Amino acid sequence: MDIKKIDGEYVAGTYARFPLEIVSGKGSLVYDENGKEYIDLGTGIAVNTFGVSDDEWVAAVTEQLAKCQHTSNLFYSAPCALLAKTLCERTGMKRVFFSNSGAEANETAIKVARKYAAEKKGSEYSTIITLKNSFHGRTITTLAATGQDIFHKDFLPLTAGFVHAEPDDIASVEALVKEYKVAAIMFELVQGEGGVHALSPEFVKGLVKIAEENDILLVCDEVQTGNGRTGELYAFMNYGFTPDIASTAKGLGGGLPIGACMLGEKVKDTLTPGSHGSTFGGNPIAAAGANNILSRIDEKLLAEVREKSNYIFTELSGAVGVKSVSGLGLMIGIETEKDASEVIAKCRENGVLVIKAKHKVRLLPALNIPMQELQKAVAVIKAACAE
Ligand SMILES: *Cc1c(COP(=O)(O)O)cnc(C)c1O
């Protein structure tokens, strides 16, 4: 069977796929249709937190699968309740709404921010400030939040009420706060799809101050940065503040679809019965997987993430053919002298899977990638950049 041909004919043409089929894997090693082995530094876009078919995660998921695969939210379910408890205890947030994807977690954040502002300040306070170069999802509303015109064209009109400030330019945020009646400021602490750009700590401090002074909610989109990726459990911990709302998804489930919108003290009771919902949200299997993932993202693992991050930054900064290295933790962007796609293809040829973010090569390795495999992969990347 020619899977590439069948896919090309029958699957909606939204993806420019790499020319290989991933058939199986173990940890950070994956295998294509010809049995060729790769070290995977893409992890399904920061999803496979502990790599492919991780034994502990598989056991947690299959145990739940054999018990009950779905209940609907008309009933109580232990994996979901316990996951919410863990997320709150480890973040200082107060309640969690579960969905199935990052976009939906952000939709929840936007609904909560608007409802809170309407009740507290008046329904005219509906504007949400996001940043240029951001990415918040593909639904019509999260596209409106996304501060990149290239994603907007062909889909207008988008949901009204979003304005975009310049990242790392606090004056541009202040100007929008003066001009509009603002409910919330929503941002990724490390802009992922926008080119792996970590916001400056001064800018983030400025956002916290503006939010405090104007009773504006701070919403962190931690869909990609969350769940240990940045060397802390959530990236807001790298920056030393707690947002009012934090959304996450990708790595939380370790490979199963789950999204979470965490609600802080101010907004913990904003959602009321009937105001929001999801058929699959909090699904027991996805939640069981997430509980396993979170239980293993401990101080020891986070220290290892930071160590591996330092290793990559040290190896690649100033290497031949490398213009710059950006990011935080194991969310890394490499600006290369050669075209990023060429470097990515060269790496693939030589058994290393890396992905792209804008014009950069992006690395999102599994948090537990063995040091030996990481060293091997970095050597391949360096060679591909230097060629
Ligand atoms: C991937 C991503 C999303 C969208 O998540 P989906 O699960 O694809 O809906 C939203 N925000 C950020 C920062 C992301 O990286």
Key attributes of the depicted protein:
single chain, 387 residues, alpha/beta, Aspartate Aminotransferase, domain 1, Aspartate Aminotransferase, domain 2, 2 domains, 7-stranded mixed beta sheet, 4-stranded mixed beta sheet, 14 helices, 17 strands, 19% strand, globular, binds pyridoxal-5'-phosphate
Notes on the structure:
With 387 residues, the chain is an alpha/beta fold. The protein folds into two domains: 3-54 and 298-386, Alpha-Beta Complex (Aspartate Aminotransferase, domain 1); 58-296, Type I PLP-dependent aspartate aminotransferase-like (Major domain) (Aspartate Aminotransferase, domain 2, 3-Layer(aba) Sandwich). The chain has 14 helices and 17 strands. The chain has helices at residues 3-10, 43-46, 55-67, 78-91, 102-120, 140-145, 149-152, 170-179, 201-214, 235-239, 284-296, 299-316, 340-349, 371-386, and strands at residues 22-26, 29-32, 37-40, 95-99, 127-131, 162-165, 182-187, 190-191, 197-198, 217-221, 245-248, 259-263, 322-328, 331-336, 352-353, 355-357, 360-363. The chain has a seven-stranded mixed sheet with strand order 4-12-11-10-7-5-6, with helices on both faces. A four-stranded mixed sheet has the order 1-2-3-15. Strand 1 (22-26) and strand 2 (29-32) form a beta hairpin. The longest helix is centred in the N-terminal third of the chain and has 19 residues, at 102-120. It is globular and about 60 Å long. The model has no long low-confidence stretch (mean pLDDT 98). Pyridoxal-5'-phosphate binds at residues 101-103, 106, 135-137, 188, 192-193, 221, 223-224, 249-250.
